[in-house]
Amino acid sequence: MVWADYLALLTWQGCKVFLKDFESLTTFNPHTIEDIKSIVSHSETKQFLIHNKYWWKKAEENYKSFSQKGYKLTWPGKEDYPSSFLKLNSPPLSLTYLGDLLRLEKEQYFPLTIVGSRKGQETALNWMDFYLPKIIRTKKICLVSGGARGIDQKVHSIAIRLSSPTVCFLPSGLDFFYPSGLLQFKKSILDHGGVFISCFPPEFEMRKPFFHIRNELLACYSRLVLVGQAQIRSGTMLTAQKALNYGVPVAALPGPPLSAAWTGNLQLLYDGAYLLRDETDLSLLIESLIYNPNQSCLRSPPSVYSI
Question: What is the C-alpha to C-alpha distance for residues 229 and 120, in angstroms, rounded to an integer?
C-alpha cells in the first residue's frame, strides 16, 4: 500500500476526505501513519484519527481483502484514475475495478456511453445490432454502459460479440453485481479487455440513491452519450442531463412520435441533441469530437426559413 491508498480507504470508514488532501501528498511526504493526521483537512476526520489510533489496520484489512479477489484500487492523481472525473462537483475519492482500466486510456479508445430503457424496443435494439458493429470495426471505440437489463446489456453483448472492450459501471460494490443477470457477462467482458468499475466499497449492495451516483459517472466518463431509447421521466434522461451539465455532447435516436417509450429521445432532439440516423451520422460525430474536443454539447438550433 502507498499513502494515498490509506487516504482512499479512510473514506470506507465513513470519514470525509477532500480532493486537496490527495494533492497534499505531493508536497508533504508522510513517513509514518501518524503523519496522515497532518494531511487530512476535515476536522471530524482529524478527530477520528486521534481517537482511533489503529484505524490503519482496518484500511490494510480492506486492501488485503479486495486484492485477493483481483480488485484494484484507484484514487485522484493515480495513473489509472479517469481524469474526466476531476471535473465532477464531488469526484469519487476511491474506485475499485476489475480489468485493465489503464490500457483503455493508454491505447486511446474513444469512450462512448450508450444508455436506455430496461424495456428496449426492437427499433432501438435492431438499430444497435445493425449499426454499432460497423462503427466498432472501423474506429477504436470502447462502449460504456451501466449493466442494466434492456439497452445497457445489449451494449455490453454487442461489444463481447465483436471482441471489443466495454466498461460497465455498477450501482453497487464489486461483490454484488446488480442486476444479478449481469454476472453472465463477467467472464466475457474481462476476457475481451473490458472493465467493471464501482465507486462503492465491495461489500455494498445496490441501493436506490446509488443509481444517481453511477449515472453521473457514466455521463462524465465518456466523450459522447448516446440515448438509445428513453421515456421523458427516466434514469436515462437524468444521465443525459448530467452529461449536458458537464459539457458532454448528447446524441439520440429518433423514435415514433406517438410512442410513450420514445418521449425522452424526442425531447432531447427538440432541445438540440445530435440526431443519429445511421452509422454515418455517428461516425462523423465521433470524428468531429476527436478533432474538436471543445465542440458544443448540443447542435446549433435549426435555421428558420420563411416560405
Answer: 7
pLDDT digits (tens, 9 = 90+) for 257-295: 999 999 999 999 999 999 999 999 999 999 999 998 888
Q: Give the global pTM.
A: 0.93
Residues 33-57 have pLDDT tens digits of 888 988 999 999 999 999 998 999 9
